[in-house]
Amino acid sequence: MTVFRWIMGVLSVFLAGGAVLSFVIFLLRDGEDWIVLARKFRRWTSAALLFWFNVEIWGRVIWTIVHW
Predict the structure, then answer these.
(1) How many CB atoms lie within 10 A of CB 3?
(2) For the residues of 3-66, what is the DSSP string, one character each?
(3) Distance between CA 25 and CA 33 in Å, rounded?
(4) How many CA atoms lie within 13 A of 31 on its CB side?
(5) How large is the C-alpha radius of gyration of the chain?
(6) Per-block average pLDDT, block size 10, for the chain (68 residues)?
(7) Residue 67: what are its φ and ψ, rounded to 5°?
(8) Nearest-CA neighbor of 48 among 2, 10, 20?
């Protein structure tokens, strides 16, 4: 489970970094394409974090049921 946490953490950091970088470029250049890209990165970051949360919760549920 620790490996999964690290993978999801690194993936989330890269996605969030892409969102921030795209947003900063949007602010500097005022290009509509950059804000669209920033929103996509933000959505993927949210999806990755929600996936991690669900795996953590359901992993605990299954672990508890198995070791009851």
Answers:
(1) 7
(2) HHHHHHHHHHHHHHHHHHHHHHHHHHH--HHHHHHHHHHHHHHHHHHHHHHHHHHHHHHHHHHH
(3) 10
(4) 10
(5) 16
(6) 91 97 94 93 97 95 94
(7) -100, 20
(8) 10
Q: Would you state the pLDDT for residue 57? A: 95
Q: Can you tell me which residue has the tokens 């394409």?
A: 33
Residue type at 52 in one-letter notation: W
Question: Are 15 and 41 in contact, with CB atoms under 8 Å apart?
Answer: yes
pLDDT at 30: 86
**34, 26 in Cβ contact below 8 A?**
yes
Whole-model pTM? 0.83
**Contact call for residues 11 and 55 (beta carbons, < 8 A):** no
